[in-house]
Amino acid sequence: MMENEASCLPHTPEEEKRIIDELTRQSEANVKEGNLFYVISNRWFSSWKMYVEQGTGENDKWDSESQHMDLLSSKINRPGPIDNSDIVEKESEGGDLQLRRMLMEELDYVLVSQEVWEKLFNWYKGGPSLPRKMISQGDINKNLMVEVYPLCLKIIDSRDNSQAVIWLSKKASVQELYEKVRTIRGIEQQKACIWDYFNKQKQSLLNASNQTLEQLNLQMDQEVLLEVQVDGNYSSQISMDSTGNELALVTVEPSRSSMTIAGGPTLSNGHSMGYNNNMLQGSTLSGSASTDTDDRPYAYNPMKKGDKGGLAGLQNLGNTCFMNSSLQCLVHTPPLVDYFLQDYSDEINTDNPLGMHGELALAFGELLRKLWSSGRTTIAPRAFKGKLARFAPQFSGYNQHDSQELLAFLLDGLHEDLNRVKNKPYIETKDSDGRPDEEVADECWKNHKARNDSLIVDVCQGQYKSTLVCPSCAKVSITFDPFMYLSVPLPSTVTRSMTVTVLYGDGRGLPMPYTVTLIKDRSVKDLIEALGTACCLKSDESLLLAEIYEHRIYRYLESPSEHLSSIKPDERIVAYRYSKGAGTTRLEIMHRRQEKCALDPLKGQRKLFGTPLVTYLGEDQINGVDIERAVSTSLSPLRRAVKLHSTKENGSTSEAVDEPSNSYNLRSMDNTELEEASSRELSFHLFLALDERGHTCKPLEKFSSLKSGKNIKVFLDWTEKEDESYDASYLENLPEVHKAGNTAKKTRQEAISLFTCLEAFLKEEPLGPSDMWYCPRCKEHRQATKKLDLWMLPEVLVFHLKRFSYSRYSKNKLDSFVTFPIHNLDLSRYVMSKDGKPYIYELYAISNHYGGLGGGHYTAYAKLIDENRWYHFDDSHVSPVSESDIKTSAAYVLFYRRVKSGSNTGEGDASETHMAS
Which SS3 state, helix, strand or coil, does residue 275 take? Predict the structure, then answer.
């Protein structure tokens, strides 16, 4: 039992932090379904964290709202009551307090365990309380997640068309839904029935059972219809077919497969319910604004494309544009269309432990068939989204996701569900051992096909050659691996301008900013080399990079391999220039001034200002005089001009002025002064920092003895004397790394070629420190060099343009315009295998992303091959688009199909291209 933890009296910040940290550790060790968590505004929680972490060094870099606070001398006050007002709706439907939509964890809110909430509430009160349960998502890969946004349903009462809003967990049963509706409406248990009323159409009757709302594919904010029994009959003002174009269900003969194409239940008599193909095709009208769903039972029948097939939109079910974009690209991939419109039931693998029991392939197949047979009727992909949540819980919920990540999952999932190999043999991988590449590549591909054989492998998988070279023993390892798509980096030709201020550690010159231009994906080592060239660094000199924050050194950038993405544009970076043999003890000199108090001029706080100086000390035994000498040397370039004498010339008086020199021999104090300093108090007001943050310090005396070989931090308190002698303006107004206002707008002149992206993907580069290779000859992990080459390309080639970059410090999206061929993408020169075949491709689909990280919007462009015409798919809206307009800076994933050898590809809008079948 932690002391005083039952008390509601205020604890010290350290005690509060210790108690909450311990409760958090306990809750993390006991995570299970059903645990209760609470949502807290990140604005309040951040202020609490700053309060309890002051002085610990854990929260050194405060947020932008508090950067004006002095970290040395200001004390952060205890926050007020818990305040969640900024994350809740002002007026919530249904009377229940609800979160604002589209909030992001760690940015807008944080989740804490029930125990942590109770403790914080005990201390601070406030609120409102926002409890949320932890649920289990997924059938195969189970994920535990907190259901921050429960399912919102709108109840339509058929008696008077009145509405009510209720909130339930997606894991709630239909029985719980009935109970809540009956309570709200005051209806007897036997007299109510509830319909799934998605898109204002009766989809199905919800029978009171233990089925969950998620299993029934009920969506956020959708309507359900309440009918109440009156005099033995259900009275309703709403007809079954409210739009007049709902497709009828008819009984058809079962196919030779006992499985329905949607994976839905078959009837007890062995027949399944499905759509009649003739009725499907006859009911489609060009430009119809109606909507259908993909979760009705759908019997398997081989079919052909309907008239104007492939022009149906997909309804957005709540931030599902990422899914709609990827799906439209896939359902317009000709080999997939041909395959899923035919009888593929024999190829469904229900026993593959790596698959989804065939359900994903069935759901995708049904959705594709509906999109190609429903004319322009928009499809609501509820069943497919439900399957996705079951088998890929990372895509569940209502947040925006990445269309490429979904595409990767779909291709892999479809492959496993359609894998023709029922029993995968064990195959031991052999080393290349100097054998011809052709022999090794053929062997690797046969081994791969022995375990992986599906439509996706046939159409979408290629093979690349991977060469690793050990830097120690020169051991070469060659492997041939399959790939489903190529994730190519945006080019190394994209550069970044960075301004860094160089300061002399030995007083040889004034601070000087230098602006250098580097490739964006480079490291600290490259920045130091560029700066060295710019400032004419000598061979016996080095540069030490540091980030300055709130007039102190926040961190040193001492790792040469650290990525430049860790340096944000608004940060201030300096480089300390020093001789390599200057010493081993690093001395940091921070500057302070006494701020005058309006009420009492003799009182006031010491405030940090300017840029810290860094120099090195070489003595074994360091005392106060040594430090004062180093401080004096570092300040010497800042010495103001001193009037020496007056002279008369031609009858006029002139003053000769001795300007400050940048010479290394100049000292602020000569030897005589230093000898005098050794016999009296130090001439500078210096204070020695006693902790890492400098919260406590003591005056530095001349005989203070300090250990060498470690960092020493001192504060120099500036008085009128220092201000008269030195010009501190050189240490102020440090420039940012990159000033946003200086950036010219991006233009198409900055366009990057797809070929440049591919070449950047194929270039030789060293592995990262976290991705070391185990050398079989050295018997150790080595930072080997890696080179990729394309060996065999598939019929359908997908390029993923890596626009999003993530690091520990930043997340970025590159909006660079990438130019790519629509026709005649010739990759023959990049293919290493000597099969003599041309590798020429035509573009047929694009997944686009507009906007920034954590949101934005996805759309798709897709070409109807039969029409030789492009269309824009923006969720439910589908419109024709000119081929000249499909190249934009939003292009994210490119889909190409290989041209049949010997065909005439042509150019421009009128090109007639014959594709390989």
Answer: coil
Average pLDDT, 10 consecutive residues per value, the chain (917 residues): 46 88 90 92 91 65 39 67 89 69 85 94 91 84 85 87 88 89 80 86 85 86 84 57 33 29 28 30 37 59 64 89 95 95 91 89 92 84 85 73 90 93 86 84 93 95 93 89 93 74 90 87 86 89 92 89 84 92 87 74 76 86 85 90 52 46 41 47 83 79 75 90 91 84 43 88 82 88 90 96 68 82 95 87 96 82 92 95 94 94 49 36
- SS3 of 380-393: ECHHHHHHHHHHCH
Q: Is 775 a catalytic residue?
A: no
**Please, which contacts does 231-235 make with residues 24 or more away whose CB atoms are closer than 8 Å?**
234/158, 234/193, 235/158, 235/159
CB 360 within 8 A of CB 413: yes
Here the tokens at position 22 are 């311990």
Please name every residue paired with 39 in a beta bridge, in sequence order, or none if there are none: 111
| DSSP sequence for 607-653 | EEEEEEEEEEE--SEE-HHHHHHHHHHHHGGGBPPEEEEEEEETTEE
Tokens coding 363? 């759901």
Q: What is the C-alpha to C-alpha distance for residues 378 and 240, in angstroms, rounded to an integer?
A: 19
Supply the DSSP symbol for 33.
Answer: T
**Can you give the pTM of this predicted structure?**
0.62
Q: Which of 685, 695, 738, 857 is catalytic?
A: 857
Distance CA 347, CA 419 (A): 7
Q: Which two tokens stand for residue 294?
A: 């993909």
Catalytic residue list contains 857: yes
The neighbouring-strand residues paired with 155 are 164, 224
Q: How many CB atoms within 10 Å of residue 348?
A: 20
- CA dist., res. 594 & res. 793, Å (int): 70
Catalytic residue among 321, 329, 444, 757: 321
